[in-house]
From TrEMBL:
<keyword id="KW-0408">Iron</keyword>
<keyword id="KW-0479">Metal-binding</keyword>
<feature type="domain" description="4Fe-4S ferredoxin-type">
    <location>
        <begin position="35"/>
        <end position="71"/>
    </location>
</feature>
<keyword id="KW-0411">Iron-sulfur</keyword>
<dbReference type="Pfam" id="PF12838">
    <property type="entry name" value="Fer4_7"/>
</dbReference>
<dbReference type="InterPro" id="IPR017896">
    <property type="entry name" value="4Fe4S_Fe-S-bd"/>
</dbReference>
<protein>
    <submittedName>
        <fullName>Ferredoxin</fullName>
    </submittedName>
</protein>
<dbReference type="GO" id="GO:0051536">
    <property type="term" value="F:iron-sulfur cluster binding"/>
</dbReference>
<dbReference type="InterPro" id="IPR017900">
    <property type="entry name" value="4Fe4S_Fe_S_CS"/>
</dbReference>
<feature type="domain" description="4Fe-4S ferredoxin-type">
    <location>
        <begin position="1"/>
        <end position="29"/>
    </location>
</feature>
<dbReference type="GO" id="GO:0046872">
    <property type="term" value="F:metal ion binding"/>
</dbReference>
Length: 91
């Protein structure tokens, strides 16, 4: 699993520099073509070993924007008990 930025992202840039694995790119670099920021599932570690919660989701001002994700290609261990599509942090 990884985390995913959803289409309520307001492109505010608060998350990008918080990521310890440089897994976030801005809307101009989003490989899906959507006008929102993007998390690379192949390098996102869910911040395991770096933070108690995903640093991007803690920094994000948009409630529920960053969710747990089960995209193919996620190559890192996952936090227990998380459900794809659910917000990573409670506001
Ligand atoms: S959960 Fe952590 S590693 Fe994954 S994108 Fe967010 S800040 Fe980066
Ligand atoms: S902090 Fe949240 S709203 Fe801002 S760019 Fe990142 S995902 Fe989008």
């Amino acid at each position: 699993m990884a985390v995913k930025i959803t289409d309520i992202c307001i492109n505010c840039d608060a998350c990008l520099d918080e990521c310890p694995t440089e897994s976030i790119v801005d809307n101009d670099e989003n490989p899906t073509g959507e006008d929102i920021y993007y998390v690379n599932p192949e390098t996102c570690t869910e911040c395991i070993g770096d933070n108690d919660e995903p640093a991007c989701a803690e920094a994000c001002p948009t409630e529920g924007c960053i969710v747990w994700d089960a995209r193919e290609g996620a190559s890192h261990p996952t936090r227990d008990g998380m459900i794809a599509g659910e917000p990573c942090v409670e506001d």
